[in-house]
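Is iron/sulfur cluster placement plausible here? Inputs below.
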Amino acid sequence: MRGKPFYADGLRFSCTRCSACCRYESGFVFLSENDVKLLAAECQMVYADFVKTYCRWVPAVNGAEQLSLKEKADFDCIFWKGGCSVYTARPLQCRTFPFWPSIMGSAASWKLARSGCQGMDKGALHSMEEIQSCLQKRIAEPVIVRKGQNPEAW
Ligand code: SF4
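Reply from A.M.:
I modeled the complex. Tokens:
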């Protein structure tokens, strides 16, 4: 039987708006179907045009590709304009940070992520239920994956 997760008593996190997770370094903001629908509506674009304009395909395992937001030449997120310009429609990956499967797997991975985020282990207490809700949302809204390369399909 598995014991309680390391975050059973909750974890503290409050965004300090340092913007470190939105800019400065190259990274990926992977998107679900729901993310693209919300963002396309926010940008007043149809789905396919939004993907062509703001997204890129990133190589994944077994020759597949995952859909991510583009970034600017300086590595800022394509939607960073002195702040998140699509904040109310921002992707689930952004909304659930730092309660991501890759971070919540162990206390060690939380500690590692904490070294790059000044808001972790500070501020508001988030309950185990709240954290697990974030993890479940990521499962319920998987990232868009395609096999092979067929840009015309988008
Ligand atoms: S979509 Fe908004 S919150 Fe997410 S990385 Fe881009 S600027 Fe930051």
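Short version: Strands lie at 11-13, 55-59, 64-69, 120-126, 145-147.
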